[in-house]
C-alpha cells in the first residue's frame, strides 16, 4: 500500500485521465481525478450526462484502462496487472450490476447466478446450492427456474445482484441499477444495497436520481470530466 495511505483504503485514484481519439484529435472524457474510497463506504457518483460517470466506473471496475494516472486497488497498481490478473480481479474482488441487467436470455435465473462460479473450485452441487441460497437472499427463491423473459424488471435486477454477489466480492459496483425500474422495484433494489452496506460491503453507485443517491453516505459529483464536489453526509 502506498505511503501515507489509510490502512482501510481499498481504492485510490491519482491524476486519472481518460481520452479517446477521433483521427488525430484527442477528446478528453476524464481530465484529472483524485479519489480515495475506504473499505465499507457507500459512495454515489453523480453528474450530468456526459460528465464521465460511466467512464469512471469502467476504470474503477477494471473494465477499461486510464490514459494516464495511477489506480491502486487494495494497494496494487492496476496498470501492472496483466489481462488474466485483471480478469481474476473482476471475477473475485468486484461484483457488477448494470442498468440493462446483462442476463443471458437462454439461461434460467439459477444458471445465470451459477455462471461466475464455473471456473472456480466448487463442485457442481455446491455451486447450485450456493446459487439457490443467494437467490433466496434477494427474495427470488420461487423464481430460480424462471427465464429472464418470464420475470419483471425488478426481479431481473435482483437476479443480477445475486450473480454479482455469488463470489462474495468486497466491492459492489452498480451503474444506473434502477434506471429501468419502476418506483416500487427501485425501493426493493436499493434496500438490498443498503443491507449489503450494513454487512460491510463497499458500494459504488452511479446514478442520476437524487432519491437513489440518497441511500449512499457520500456523494462524488462529476462535472466536465473532473470531481466538482465530494460530499460526505446527506445531499444538500
From TrEMBL:
Keywords: ATP-binding, Nucleotide-binding, Transport. Residues 11-235 form the ABC transporter domain. Gene3D superfamilies: P-loop containing nucleotide triphosphate hydrolases. The keyword Transport applies. InterPro entries: AAA+_ATPase, ABC_transporter-like_ATP-bd, ABC_transporter-like_CS, ABC_transpr_LolD-like, MacB-like_ATP-bd, P-loop_NTPase. Transmembrane segments: none annotated. GO terms for cellular component: membrane protein complex; plasma membrane. Pfam families: ABC_tran. The keyword Transport applies. It comes from the Bacteria. One of its GO terms (molecular function) is ATP binding. This is ABC transporter domain-containing protein. It comes from Dialister succinatiphilus YIT 11850.
